[in-house]
Structure formats: C-alpha cells, structure tokens
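hiii, so i know i said id send this last week but things got crazy w the move. better late than never?? heres the sequnce for the chain we talked about at the cafe, plus the structure i predicted for it. fair warning i was half asleep when i ran it
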Amino acid sequence: MANLSDLISDIASGVASKVTANDVIKVVSDVATGAGAKFYSDRAAKNLKLENYDETIADANKAIKLDSTDAAAYFCRGQAYAALERYDEAIEDLEKAVQLKPRNTDYQNALDECRNELDGNEETSDDETSDGDAESYVERAKELLDEEDYEEAVDAATQAIEIDDENAEAYFTRGKAYFELEDYDAAIEDFDSAIELDSEYELAYYNRGKAYHKLEEYKKAVKDFSKSIKLSPEDAVTYYRRGKAYFKLEEYNKAINDFDKAIELDDEDTDNFVARGRVYFELEDYDAAIEDYDAAIELDEDCELAYYHRGKANFELENYADAVDDFSKSIELSPDDGITYYKRGECYQALGKKSKARADFAKAKELGYDD
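okay and structure toks below
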C-alpha cells in the first residue's frame, strides 16, 4: 500500500480485503508524523507573519515533537523568540535550523541578526566589545559579501585575521570572497587555514570542493564533498555537486547515485533532474534522460537547459520534429547561444528542410559557433 489515497481508493472500490492492518498503521503513522509536522510547521509560519508569536511557538513545538529534523519549525520558533527578545533561546533554535539546512541564507541571516542583537544589548550594558575587534571585521566582511563587494570583503576579513590569526571564520569568509573574485588558489589557501583551525568546518570543505571543481581538480573536489556529506548528510546540494564531479571523472554510476540522493532530499530542484538526465544521455539511455528533462520542465516551464538537452536526446532517437520544438524553446529562452541554432539546423537537415537548416547554420556562425 503506497499511501493514504491508495488505501481510500481500495476501500471505495470494494476491494477492502486488500487492506491489511499493517497498511492502515503505516499510512496513519506517515500522516501523523510527516504530514502532521508539516501542518504545524506551515501554521507556525503563518502565525509568525501575523506576529502571533505565542501561537507560533506553540505550533513549532508540535511540529518539532513530530519531526525533530524540521528546520522550518526551528526557524519559525527562533524568529518568534527573537521578536520576544528571548535571544538565547532564539539563537539556539536558529543554530539548529542552520545545522539542518546549512546553505539556507535566510536561516543564516536570521541567526546573524539575532547574534548582533544580543551583542548589541551586551555592548550597551557591559561595553565588552569594540569596533576594532576581529568579530566586527568578520561581520563586516560577511555584509560586504552579501552586497557583492568582494574586494572590500577581502580587506575586512584580512583585518580580522591581522587581529586574530586563529579565527577560522575570518579565513573562511575571505576564502568565499576570493572564490567570487575567481582567485580559486587563494580561496583554497584560506579554506585550508579554516580547516586547519577547525577540522569539522563543514562549509569550508564544501566551498573548497567548489574551488577544486573550478580548477578541474575533480578528485580533490570529490574528497572534499565527501567530507562535507559526512558532516552534513542531509544536504541535497552537496550530493549534487559531488555528482557533477563524478560526471566529469566519467564515473557515471556514482554520479547517478548522488543525483538520486539529491532528488530524494530535494525533488523540486530542476538542476538535480537535468544533471541526472545528462548522465543517462552519456550512457545512451535517451528515454531515461528525457524522463528527467520532462520532470525538470514540469517543475519550471522556463528551464532552458532542460529543453536544450531534451532536444539532443530526441535527436538521438530520431524524433527530429520534437527536437526542433525543444531547440526552438531553448532559443526563445536563450537567443544568443549559437550551438542551439546549430543543433536545430541539424534537425532541419534531417527533416529535409534545407533552407531552414542553412539559416540556422548561418545564425550559429554569426553568434560565434562553427562546428
């Protein structure tokens, strides 16, 4: 028995004999834990927007009791505690939310704001910090990163390091700025320093893996992403990134395993489906590739890469008319990509539409693509 709707359908169609006690117990359990937690978590979010903080906390408590890995519930409860100026409790909840979803910027920003509020209160009462301490420069560097002022972020993080050369977060933050400036070697050096100071710094491994990937050092990228996964095993994007590295190494079965896991953890990210579809394409399983591109397009009807790659798969299956449709949609969404005109030209050529083929080949050459 797959789910509640299947169970109800069997009963309604007069085949209740198919329904066992274990079926009922499993379905009710699934509803009580998964769906129940989501109900309270969603209601907590609504109450938070309405500034009903006590109700938010009550609903989040119920959600967390049903599902202790519900990051959104911790986030809502933390925000409610912060609004009530219960900062210690807020920080504890927001840290848990970030731990569960370490790359959710909303969670991280809320945690930073809450810490700043707490620090501000302590400054007012105790005057324990000054504008010149390392943490102030780290926070400034993070703000500059958010503002995409990467050179200034490097300067601010460097000042933090000059004050405290054992501040792992300062190295990490500067490493992120160097990454955005495309100075990948410098980024790796800083991530190395962060990891040397804190061997459990999950985001440092993750970001160093990204830098190695940019330098086409895919085996090193795999190693770092694997360490990141060990430290944070429920983060879909890390499986996705490791899968891409395996793809570059032509270790296709490992790549598929990682994209499978990424989809299991996040089945609403088109990148996961497009990436797995590309592996199936390389394995010449064009039907499976098309299924993944279909899934991506169902999630986002403007997913240009999904149309482009589905066009390639349809071409291999000699579905030339379908391929033309796909490449045409890809061109509509990204009109300056010469290779797509060339690919559509090949389809027109296969269909015997020579004038259209010549026009697409000419356009491809005009845009700088010449096979």
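btw Residues 130-181 form one domain. thought thatd interest u
miss u guys!!
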